Hints:
Elements lengths: L6 E5 L16 E4 L26 H6 L4 H4 L3 H5 L3 H5 L3 H13 L6 H9 L3 H16 L6 H16 L4 E10 L4 E10 L6 H4 L4 H4 L2 E2 L5 H10 L2 H4 L4 H8 L19 H5 L3 H5 L3 H6 L10 H6 L2 H4 L4 H6 L2 H4 L12 H7 L2 H5 L2 H9 L3 H8 L2 H10 L1 H6 L13 E8 L2 E8 L1 H5 L3 H6 L2 H4 L4 H4 L4 H5 L3 H4 L4 H4 L17 H5 L3 H5 L3 H6 L10 H6 L2 H4 L4 H6 L2 H4 L12 H7 L2 H5 L2 H9 L3 H8 L2 H10 L1 E2 L4 E8 L37 H4 L29 H4 L15 E8 L8 E5 L5 E5 L1 H5 L3 H6 L2 H5 L11 H6 L2 H6 L2 H7 L2 H6 L2 H13 L6 H10 L2 H13 L6 H4 L4 E4 L4 E4 L1 H5 L3 H5 L3 H4 L12 H5 L3 H4 L4 H5 L3 H5 L3 H6 ...
Parallel strand pairs: 4-5, 18-26
Antiparallel strand pairs: 1-2, 1-4, 3-4, 6-7, 8-9, 9-10, 11-12, 13-14, 15-16, 17-22, 19-20, 20-21, 21-25, 21-29, 22-25, 23-24, 24-25, 26-27, 27-28, 28-32, 28-36, 29-32, 30-31, 31-32, 33-34, 34-35, 35-39, 36-39, 37-38, 38-39
Amino acid sequence: MKKKPLVVAIQTALLLAAGSASTHTFANVIPNQSNAYQEKSSAVISLSLRKKEDDKDDKDDKKDKDNSDIVLLDVEGIKALSTDDFASYTGEQFILFIEQLTKLSDELDDETKALVFFSLDQTQFQTLFVSGFEGKHGKDYKKVEKELKKELTDFYKAYLPPGIKADVKVKEDKKTKVLEVEVKFKLDKKQLKDKHLTYMTPAFFYWLDWEGMKKSDVEYLLELMPQTVTTSVTEQDIDIWIEGGTPDVDNELDNEFADLDATAISHWSLEDIAALTSDDLAAIPITAFSGFTKAQIAALDITIVRLLTLEQVLAFSSEALAGFNADNVVGLSTDILEALGIQILMSMEADEVQKLVLSDQPDVLTWLASDSNVLGWIVLNYFDVIRDAEDTDINDFLPEGWTLITVQDNETTQYKLLLTEAAVNALSLDLIASLTVDQFVLFNVTSISYLSVTQVKVIKQETFVALPQDYVVQLPEVPLDEIDFSTLDATAVSELSLEVIANLDADQLAMIPIEAFSGFTQAQIAAFDVTIVEQLTLTQVLAFSPEALSGFNADNVIGLSTEIVQTLGLKILKSLEITEVQKLVLSTDDSVLAWLSSDSNLLAWLVLNYYDATEGNINVCVVDDDDNDNDRSRSSDDDDDDEGNSSDDDDDDDDEGNSSDDDDDDDDEGNSSDDDDDEGNSSDDDDDEGNSSDDEDDDNDDNGNSSNNDDANDVTCTTASIDKFLPPDWTVVTLEDGTLQFLLTEAAVQTLSFDLIASLTAKQFFWLDATLMGYLSADQIDAIDDGTLAGLSENYLEFLLVEETVQTLPTVDLITLLTKLFVVQAPVIETRLVEIVVKQPIIHRVNITLNMINSGNTAQFNQIALPGWTFEDNTGKVELTQEAVSELSTEVITNFTDKQIVQFQPTVFNHLTVNQFANLSPLALGSVTRKQMTNLNIKVIEKFTATQVTHLNHDSLGGLSLEQFELIPADARKGLTVTNIGGLAPEVIFAKGPELFNTITVKEEEKLSLTDAIKIISSVDATKVKSTDLEKFLPIGVKIDHKTGKLKFKKGKVKLPKWVRKLELPTAIVLPELPDLNVSFSLGGSLTQKTVLTELTQTLATIGYSGFAFKQQDSGILTVEGQGSSFAFIPAQDGLEQLAEGTATPGLTATKTGHYEFITADSQKVTLIPMPVNVQGLLDVVGEGGKVEINEHGETHLQIQVASGKFSQVAGVFEADVETAEAGAAPGITITGTPGVDEVAICVYKDGSKQTIRPAILDRDISEIAAPQVTGNQRLNYQYHANGEIHFDLEGFRWKAVPELTVTTVATRKQHLMKVLKPSELVEFITKEGQRQLLHIEQIGEALGSDDSENDTDD
Length: 1355
């Protein structure tokens, strides 16, 4: 074996600049001997060798590798590390590995050290060490030799097993600027332990230095090592080692290539590659070529590339192919180029391809031209580069049959490529498959028409769907029998022609993936043959979009199976166009009636929506108007929209029944100025039954059919006998006044679906005999629309409440019915309702009263409540006298639900007895609130059981003071769990820490939440609780430093414990849950004032604001005060973000959206949002009956009293600055400026301070839901600014929306609305609750694009 010193060299370069000293820069790590196949002394290995060659996605894997895997390594994990695991580390991750070893230094025994280090390839190890050194210390060092030597020596000294010493030398070759790191591992027989040598591996063995040792000692040590290491060692080898040689094996890089494999090739140095001869290349087994790396291919000389065969190149990995460059790729032979085509160029680095394009060497263009597709790919991908280059003529690059032409488009000259039919036919499938839309449209449209079906089939879907229509129409259609339906996605399905759809067979339909069915369009569904519809499964139909469902028609809808019909119910019929409904009504085909009869609810819906009460028949009318072509099924008098709500006018109303023609019929608030009363209800159009009282003269003909009173439109009506469509057990009866109604049996009522009942209007209910009300179940009653229920006449509602019905209804049905009637506040039966409820058993009465509160109606509470029960408006809670509490029976208490228990005032719990509390269900017990727990009777606490403690929720435990907690029996405390222990008050955790953590049994899958971990760590008594006591409770990915007692987080968001408000806010104030910044990440930190707040205050001091301090108010709002100035904020909901250490400088910055970000010394970022400084003072300003609602974004909605009983509304965001109001300024809110331009409001508090309010969106989440009504499904890249502005992308431009401060009230709706009032100027936003806000929009630049951050990107 040959003598070879162990050298790891680091390529350096002198950075020369005028007047500056030279510095070292690490470029590559160059090991001399990395494995059994190397011998050259100047071999180069790129850092990329740490990447596993057999995994093409490994690069991305490393990028996304979770560093927590390294941070969480324990001793056993380190023992289990393989060479591959270690080799996968990046320099940054290697540093983490070193740090983890350091933490575990006390636990690493000598055996573990031997096991770990003997198994690691030292080339990989030292490569990573240098990379980590570079990442840790930076690239430029004047005394790099000394510092690198010291760190590497110290590390080996600490972690090598006894008996092995690393001798590290670092020196620089002044000529080559190569920094050589030479390492020799010396053995000391006296200190070596025999057992340790049994772990020796070839990876480490080759790095040992035996120089100067006795031969007998060497032989003794070799006997202790595994045979896999020593099997080929000879006496001659030992003699060489003793003389100073290095261990090696016989497979050296001479002419012995026959046994090489891919792994061996991958470890060759770049000089080994450069030294290859033609004979060497020919001798390498073909199977070994897959081991070539990208760096090695890049190092191949063009003379060697010319010798490569097609078989050899095909054996290269796709990643290795990327190593070809402009200097050597032209050496590939013509047959290789023709075989691989554009794959070679596509795999190369873009800058190398550009070098080819711009090369002035004639042979380069000749090589490219040897394959027309390669040349074509060059033209399409580097069109502008070639055309704009000074010394390059694009015509030289055009393949045969390609011509560059110019066309005029909107006075703009465009370049296009015109191809002959032969040239198009010559385009390879690989080339076509690679094309983007921009490249595709470089072709002239005429050229596209020459594409074959085979070529069209390989066009990428994202390219195909984005092609302009004039290109699409030129493409040949793929024959039905050539479509692979199993590969289609939703987009591809949407592109299938109607001819293809019409000719689908059952097998082809079954092949389409279920997720692709969402791509079917309305027109395609309409083209389905009934025989195909019969093959549709329920799963497939459920995957259709709502728009697609509307494509069914009278000819094919009847093919849907009974299962589908009964599942979808009325969705099918309601989605049909009215002309299709006409066809169904007129059809004489028995199969149509049979299909309708498959679900009685279809017949019922048809009857109730198209019933002519006067004539007693079915009447379907269609308005012959082009504008109404897309109208769906509509009743004959056109008074009801799809939801069954009166819409009165097809031209003026939107789908929700709200007027959309503001200019003629509505005032500025969007309310009807002529037809509606103050409540938004029609004052003169409807009778008590909800029927139009004047329609008969104005809108209906003598038969009761709608004529729309419109001379411009013709109406076609279809009449059919009612008997034909009556569902089973429905009978037509004539009332005394001649009106016709339907009488339903109990069985018929029970078959009415919830969808059908929910769609009924009060008018349609009137067509049903009132007796049906007595047959409805609780769930059916619950399905009745509130507006419909409130609009029913007295006799219908009273029928629900007749004594016989009330007595026969099951308890749950009765409670549901009575609660719902109270909620809709049906005044016509209020007296009767109260009479019935007060007669009910106590348990029913309790349920009804508490359910009313949950439903938001308390108007009649005090009329029906039990004696001693009072609803308090100011708190929204129920108060009970002590006597009333004592009368709560076991039956009543046992039946309290989770939603009911929270309705009681906390003081009620002071009167509960031990037995009463013990009878609470686990569900109710788990919903007891913090304040209720604070008020709990002491005697109850003294009798707590472990089971009760287990069921108590996290929040309720926080209501226990230390004194109360100490009353809980010791056995009961054992019921605490990792789920609720974090809710305990900090004072309890401080005093009882050791007991708590020794009591809880932690299962492997049970861990504290991150917020609880933070709270507990910061609250414990650090003198009594050790970090090791808490380690087992910590969530995955969170560690505690046992030396400092500090929590360590991985990079990312850290959710903080929520702030516990120390003051009771009135119900008129709504604040979001806020993070608690009085917590610490150090053991016992919150009690030593080492909190996030103090960190923020210290950050202020570091940037020159030493006189300022942060404070968190009782409300949770943050204030910053100092030097006569004051600011108010709330923390962002995420709490804070842990940044990578050293990546950000501590300080205060304003984001590009105007929000504030603080970076602490621990690299933790806290985002602050401006906020009103005093919410209670703000409520005082808005006046009696006013409201203050603030969401987590700081967006504030104010209801302001402007006169007795009258209010205005404002939506805005507060500026953080709290200023002093002008002398004499009256408390209140004053709006100034022009909406959309400079509109602001000034809020003056009663204490003489003031804040500015800027307009903001009423609710950003709801506005984003409504926005697609205007924008479609475009990605808008919303950006919400601190000044209330909203920036977004739309149709290639960046826009700014400035809301108006004032919010007005209009009629409630079925869904939120967003509508353009003036294009590019004004948008209207209306919530379902009827709150209306205008937004002024303005174009401000080019769109940001999908890659830009929504919150941090500047405009």
